């Protein structure tokens, strides 16, 4: 922290050959540092913010390295809030390294996430927005991208700040009642304060309820393909991915371990698992794979249990008949969808069973009914609401702590405990929200009390 203004630099584009590569510098003196190696030195030094300058970058020896385009961002109008320089050079890793080595003679390499850390410390964004930067980079599908972008744009911050302000206002009212209980001043309306607390709790609970949707967007919705050997699990796995990821053979037990891949369905990130076939007498290696299959089924949000369509001809079969306890434990049935695979092999007039979804990997639109059923079962067609979503587990834990304190404050009111007990719980609730925003300070509360209520007058 004591050296927060020192110049740091790092590549901000991936390693490898590309059309261009970008190196970023931030900190007091970074513009002067780069000007010492740049052909348009004076033009760079006098450049206004948000300006581009073309020229040649030179090594310490004076040897030209590359023709570059330099972007200038002057404090505080930059990503970090400090002076920032971005050098765009040709995307040859050797050129990038030579420029970087030249710069590192006068500055240091940035640590992971340090540019965003400086943006937070310099007040360009709060902690929840800073975390959203990485969530946006890591997002696996466009709905996850939308959720992260909403958080980066401050939807969650604004919501939490408003909630925090309401809790603080309520807390001030109770503290005023403590401080002036022995003076001839009107006491607060306890019923009105109680109703306000109930409304605050409702708001916090509504936000917390988005946590499960947020988890799915962040980690991906887990779908496990299971069933007996040779029912078409690996073929369906490949078809959903649109690539030959799993080995497919006519021999039972080909998949001995599980395979894991990501895909996008209706804009939602999906983690799909191809697992070892379930059968009664596997060999030792296959048995290990089956054990892992059961573990993945327990962790999954949805299980696709595959049954060959040609092996089931009784249209009156019940769901439980299709899922025998020996192959799938009853506690997993509630999150299981039966899939009749190889539907292209059944005869035209064969009665179909309403308890499952028919699919074929070789028929035109043979997977449409299945993907539609998955979307309906997991409610993937629902557009993200235009309101904050908790997509970070740290935020969910902090919000749970906040709610716990609010519920305790409610109980204190109902039990006619002293105002100091209620205020204490509201302090804890505020601190939990401040953990999310990264603004944990008690001095702000004192400033608010004196400025709004003129207590000393």
In CATH terms, what is the fold-level topology of the largest domain? Rossmann fold
Biggest beta sheet attributes: 6 strands, mixed
Reported CATH architecture of the largest domain: 3-Layer(aba) Sandwich
Using the coordinates above, name the CATH class of the largest domain: Alpha Beta
Overall mean confidence score, pLDDT = 84
> How many β-strands, per DSSP?
12
Helix/strand class: alpha/beta
Helix content: 40-55%
Strand-residue proportion = 15-25%
Q: Give the helix tally.
A: 16
Low-confidence stretches: 441-457
Number of structural domains: 3
- CATH homologous superfamily annotation of the largest domain: P-loop containing nucleotide triphosphate hydrolases
Report the order of strands and helices: EEHHEEEHEHHHHHHEHEEHEHEEHHHH
Q: What do these coordinates show?
A:
With 457 residues, the protein is of the alpha/beta class. It folds into three domains: 8-121, Gyrase A, domain 2 (2-Layer Sandwich), CATH 3.30.1360.120; 142-210 and 390-453, Up-down Bundle (Four Helix Bundle (Hemerythrin (Met), subunit A)), CATH 1.20.120; 217-378, Rossmann fold (3-Layer(aba) Sandwich). The protein is 43% helix and 17% strand. It contains 16 helices and twelve strands. The strands form two sheets. A six-stranded mixed beta sheet has the order 3-4-5-2-1-6. A six-stranded mixed beta sheet has the order 8-9-7-10-11-12, sandwiched between helices. The chain starts with 7 loop residues before the first strand and ends with a helix. The model is unreliable at 441-457 (pLDDT under 50).
């Amino acid at each position: 922290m004591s050296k927060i203004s020192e110049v740091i630099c790092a590549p901000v584009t991936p390693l490898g050959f590309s059309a261009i590569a970008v190196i970023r510098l931030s900190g007091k003196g970074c513009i002067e540092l780069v000007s010492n190696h740049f052909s348009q030195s004076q033009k760079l030094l006098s450049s206004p913010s948000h300006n581009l300058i073309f020229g040649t970058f030179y090594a310490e020896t004076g040897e030209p390295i590359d023709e570059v385009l330099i972007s200038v961002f002057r404090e505080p109008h930059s990503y970090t809030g400090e002076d920032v320089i971005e050098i765009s050079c040709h995307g040859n890793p050797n050129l990038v390294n030579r420029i970087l080595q030249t710069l590192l003679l006068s500055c240091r390499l940035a640590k992971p996430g340090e540019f965003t850390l400086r943006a937070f410390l310099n007040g360009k964004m709060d902690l929840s927005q800073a975390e959203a930067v990485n969530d946006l980079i890591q997002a696996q599908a466009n709905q996850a991208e939308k959720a992260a972008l909403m958080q980066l744009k401050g939807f969650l911050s604004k919501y939490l700040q408003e909630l925090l302000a309401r809790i603080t206002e309520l807390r001030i009212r109770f503290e005023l009642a403590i401080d002036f209980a022995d003076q001839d001043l009107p006491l607060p309306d306890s019923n009105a304060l109680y109703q306000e607390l109930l409304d605050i709790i409702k708001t916090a609970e509504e936000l917390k309820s988005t946590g499960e949707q947020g988890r799915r967007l962040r980690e991906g919705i887990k779908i496990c393909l299971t069933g007996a050997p040779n029912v078409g699990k690996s073929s369906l796995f490949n078809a959903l991915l649109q690539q030959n990821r799993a080995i497919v053979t006519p021999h039972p037990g080909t998949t001995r371990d599980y395979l894991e891949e990501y895909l996008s369905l209706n804009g939602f990130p999906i983690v799909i698992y191809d697992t070892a076939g379930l059968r009664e007498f596997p060999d030792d290696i296959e048995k290990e794979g089956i054990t892992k299959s059961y573990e993945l089924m327990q962790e999954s949000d949805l299980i696709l249990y595959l049954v060959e369509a040609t092996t089931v001809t009784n249209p009156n079969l019940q769901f439980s008949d299709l899922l025998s306890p020996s192959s799938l434990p009853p506690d997993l049935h509630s999150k299981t969808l039966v899939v009749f695979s190889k539907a292209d092999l059944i005869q035209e007039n064969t009665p179909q069973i309403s308890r499952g979804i028919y699919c074929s990997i070789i028929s035109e639109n043979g997977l449409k009914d299945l993907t539609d059923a998955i979307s309906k079962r997991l409610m993937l067609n629902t557009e993200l609401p235009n309101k904050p979503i908790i997509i970070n587990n740290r935020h969910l834990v902090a919000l749970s702590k906040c709610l716990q304190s609010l519920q305790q404050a409610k109980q204190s009111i109902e039990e006619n405990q002293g105002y100091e007990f209620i205020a204490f719980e509201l302090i804890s609730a505020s601190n939990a929200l401040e953990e999310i925003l990264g603004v944990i300070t008690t001095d702000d509360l004192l400033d608010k009390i004196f400025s709004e209520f003129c207590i000393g007058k």
